[in-house]
Amino acid sequence: FKPADDKIVDISIYDALLGDISFVDAGDYEFFPGDVRGYELDEETTAEQMSGETLSAGAETTAVQATEATSVTAATTQVTATIVAEKATITAATSATTAKPETTKPATTKSATTKPTTTKPTTTKLSSVTSTSAVTNEEKTDSANKAPELDVTFVFSAKGYGHGVGMSQDGAIAYAKNGWSYDQILLHYYHGSGISIASDGVLSIPLTVTYDLRIIPVREYLVRVALAEIGFPKSGVPDEAFKAQVVAIYTYAKDKNFVLKKDTHAYLSDEKYAKYIKSQAEEAYIYDLVESVLGKYVAYNGKAAFTPYFANSAGLTAATDTVWGGTPGRYPYLSGGRRSIESPVTSKLEISAEDFKAKVEDYNVHHPETAITLGKDPATWINIIEKDSGGYVTKIRVGNKEFRGSTFRSDIMQYSIKSHCFTVSLA
Fold first, then answer.
1. Residues 327-356: what's their mean pLDDT?
2. Average pLDDT, rounded, for the chain
3. Secondary structure of 31-54 in the HEC alphabet?
4. Are the C-beta atoms of residues 396 and 389 closer than 8 Å to each other?
């Protein structure tokens, strides 16, 4: 379980090994395996062209020897010519009755294929050009038996950004601008019986947090994560929204005993932090906001709750079990369906059938236990089976396998779709 949507993964090392890499927006990436193309000898290449042999310096000596033998050769040639002429007369008569008609084999020009170009975040269609001067009956039969051309494009239209569970960061900003306090925001997104805002005593607040095997002072940790996740206060982010984010981060860390892995959430590096903070006054202001809610956490029946968050809602939040699986109702305060008033982010991804097939093949390499088999017709490859009340895809069939929409987005599409609240069509 991740409290925020996945961030940038450094996969630049694969550029030289596997093909082109295209980064979309922060937190997403798109990977296109490249083709490894071999080279073969052209059918019309002759033996002389293959060997590349030419007359060299030894030709001069050979010419002298040939001159000395000319007189003997000339005499022999005259006798031989007479015998050959007699044989030719007999052979000509025989050939007239037995010769077969000469057949000319149709010439074939090799086809030239244009490699598809890739732009971000969309993928263009594969284009190929084939030229033949003659086509045999066998070739016509092969063409009739071929699978449908992979010249169609899948169009994914998505709403929202992120997994959709818990607090929407854009929603928190919108509610804060409407006058909501940080605790009102939190209790709206993490809601239900047993949920409350609790507080650690001064002696219970840890001095440090272990993040990515590094020990970081707890205040510094909260400041840098909050800045990376929701943004800078007074720069479009109201103070109450920033504080709600700080409490959600502290709660999540408390639930993990303040020991967290690197991929848990974003964290502002020294270099980026220096760009955010322009003065000591700004830094002091941010630390004061953190201090005002330090130790406060979202509690469920007296213990730290599980408090995931994400960037932008499609209108309603999603339930944990429909996104990450598990027993329905395990987190009753994350049952989804909570209204979020920000304007949903809309996005579109176009991907050719050829490139989608490549993504499925890549999935099969990494998940052989649930390998997908695609049919011949791309129109049958993707089928949305079920959605929740907010439009998030809860069940989707890909080839012969079914997945949760969030799994399809992460494991097959590799986060190239911004949200699993999407529709898909063919173009």
1. 97
2. 75
3. EEECCCCCCCCCCCCCHHHHHCCC
4. no
Phi, psi angles (nearest 5°) of residue 202: -55, -40
Rounded CA gap, 227 and 237, in Å?
A: 10
**Burial annotation 72-94 (CB, 10 A radius, 16+ → b, else e):** eeeeeeeeeeeeeeeeeeeeeee
Question: Which DSSP symbol is given to 295?
Answer: T
Distances (CA, A) of 364 to 358, 361, 407: 10, 5, 14
Helix (H, G, I), strand (E, B) or coil at 248: helix
DSSP code per residue over 111-156: PEEEPPPB-SS-BPPPEEE---S---HHHHHHHHTSPPPS--EEEE
DSSP per-residue letters across 158-195: EESBB---SEEHHHHHHHHHTT--HHHHHHHHS-STTE
**Residue 390: φ, ψ to 5°:** -90, 0
For residue 287, pLDDT beyond 50: yes
pLDDT over 70 percentage in the chain? 65
In tens, the pLDDT along 192-227 reads 999 999 999 999 999 999 999 999 999 999 999 999
Tell how strand 422-426 and strand 153-159 pair up.
Answer: antiparallel
Cβ(162)–Cβ(2) below 8 Å: no
CA neighbor of 218 nearest in space, from 205, 231, 232, 204: 205
Is residue 142 within 8 Å of residue 155, measured between CB atoms?
A: no
Structure tokens at 164: 């959709």
Average pLDDT, integer, range 286-292: 98
The predicted structure's pLDDT at residue 246 = 98
Residue 166 Rama label (left phi>0; alpha psi -120 to 50; beta):
left
Q: What does the radius of gyration of the chain's CA atoms come to, in whole angstroms?
A: 36
How many Cβ atoms from other residues are within 10 Å of residue 206's Cβ? 16
* Beta strand pairing call for 167-168 and 309-310: parallel
CA dihedral in degrees (135, 139, 145, 147; nearest 10)?
Answer: -70
Cβ(217)–Cβ(281) below 8 Å: no
Neighbour tally for 416: CB within 10 Å:
24
Distance between CA atoms of 12 and 380, rounded to whole angstroms? 34
Strands, E assignment, 34-108: none
Name the token pair of 139: 């070739």
